[in-house]
From TrEMBL:
It comes from the Eukaryota. Pfam families: TPR_8. This is Dynein axonemal assembly factor 4. It comes from Campylorhamphus procurvoides. The lineage of its organism: Eukaryota, Metazoa, Chordata, Craniata, Vertebrata. Residues 1-73 form the CS domain. Keywords: Cell projection, Coiled coil, Cytoplasm, Neurogenesis, Nucleus, Repeat, TPR repeat. The gene is Dnaaf4. GO terms for biological process: determination of left/right symmetry; epithelial cilium movement involved in extracellular fluid movement; heart development; inner dynein arm assembly; nervous system development; outer dynein arm assembly.
């Protein structure tokens, strides 16, 4: 019923992948060794086994039909038949492997389909459970809402009844007061008629009495007056509901203090001309000198204006621009920082000035090769004016410089 084969493989490592077996063909390929046999009769390749241990391969080949074999392999067979049997065995093995793959694929698809159906059933049951819960909650809320509406209706009815009762009481009180007033007015009139003379039964006497009674019943007219409304002017263009009142008031307070310091500084500069004592005039003169390229003269004009009024941020801002041109980078940083200090609180009116201050200080930092500090100032300017393409391009250049410096180091 079975054939037992022991195949020694000295010095080589055999694996299950080295063995190929079909009904009539057995092959073991373990380089540098090769064993090949066309079996004497068909075997049951499904139940047959191979065991690898201690450099040997032990085969247990179960015969399809119990019988005695004359030899393990076919003998006296020409090469063509051997080649045919070999190719046929390989072809059958491929077909069998293909069938097994197809069977596995079909089984896998069936399992997948079953799992999908089971998942859909679970999801459907869960969905139905959730919908039932929602429906119960909806009914519960509807009942509570109806109960609340009924309670509100009853409360409104009760309030309306109370209001009607109070109104009736007030009307009754008003009628009583009116009757009392009528009685009070009638009693003195009767006494007067008895002492003086009896009124005639004419139309004039009745109208006079009714007119006096009406005058006593009507209240006096209200006095007229005129209310004057004064509107204080707003120094900021933004709407009041959108503005930050506390910060604006602080800004205006600082501007007022800056103007008050002018009169105190003028007393120290008695020898100046009248026009030279005006910081605005000096600022305009400095701007003209800057436009002409005379940066030293512009700095002198701004210095004198700062002595007259050291609370104007534009003076420091313009002087910082002059220092940049003259390569006085540390002074440019100092003036830009002073301008930013004076440009507080941040309000819409000083946005442009703050952007210039950040850019000029950032430029000075970059020229001192302090690129990180310069990039921070450019990013602060972009937060105020995010649509400024020039500042955005310069910030991108600084980022590339920083990256190149890091890579170089």
């Amino acid at each position: 019923t079975a054939v037992f084969v022991s195949l020694p493989v000295p010095g080589a490592r055999a694996t299950p992948g080295s063995i190929f077996c079909t009904e009539r063909y057995l092959k073991v390929s373990v380089p540098p060794f090769l064993f090949e046999a066309i079996l004497f009769a068909p075997i049951d390749d499904t139940n047959s086994t191979a065991k690898i241990e201690n450099g040997n391969i032990f085969f247990t080949l179960y015969k399809k039909e119990p019988a005695m074999w004359d030899s393990l392999t076919l003998e006296n067979v020409d090469k063509e038949k051997l080649q045919y049997l070999r190719e046929n065995a390989v072809l059958k093995a491929h077909e069998k492997a293909k069938e097994e793959r197809e069977a596995k694929k079909v089984t896998k698809e069936e399992h997948k389909k079953y799992a999908l159906e089971a998942t859909m059933k679970l999801e459907e049951a869960e969905r139905k459970r959730i919908e039932d819960l929602k429906e119960k909650e909806r009914q519960k809320v509807t009942e509570e809402l109806e109960l609340w509406k009924n309670q509100q209706k009853e409360a409104d009815k009760y309030k309306s009844i109370q209001k009607e009762q109070e109104l009736h009481q007030e009307i009754g009180q008003i009628k009583e007061k009116k009757n009392e007033k009528m009685n009070k007015t009638r009693i003195p009139n009767e006494g007067i008629s008895k002492t003086k003379h009896k009124p005639s039964k004419g139309h004039g006497s009745c109208s006079m009495f009714s007119q006096n009674l009406k005058e006593e019943q009507l209240p006096a007219p209200r006095s007229a007056a005129t209310i004057k409304v004064n509107f204080t002017p707003r120094a900021f263009p933004t709407a009041l509901r959108e503005s930050r009142i506390a910060e604006e008031e602080e800004w205006l307070h600082k501007q007022a203090e800056a103007r008050r310091t002018v009169s105190a500084d003028l007393s120290e500069l008695e020898d100046l001309k009248e026009e030279e004592k005006n910081p605005d005039w000096l600022k305009d003169k400095g701007n003209k000198m800057f436009a002409m390229g005379n940066y030293l003269a512009a700095v002198n004009a701004y210095n004198l204006a700062v002595r007259l009024n050291n609370r104007l941020p534009l003076l420091y801002l313009n002087r910082a621009a002059c220092h940049l041109k003259l390569r006085n980078l540390h002074k440019a940083i100092e003036d830009s920082s002073k301008a930013l200090e004076l440009l507080t609180p941040p309000v819409p009116d000083n946005e442009n000035a703050r952007v210039k201050a950040y850019v000029r200080r950032g430029t000075a930092f970059c020229q001192l090769e302090l690129y990180t500090e310069g990039l921070q100032d450019y990013e602060a300017a972009l937060k105020i004016d995010p649509k400024n393409k020039d500042i955005e391009k310069d910030a991108e250049k600084i980022r590339h410089l920083i990256q190149g410096t890091i890579q170089g180091s």
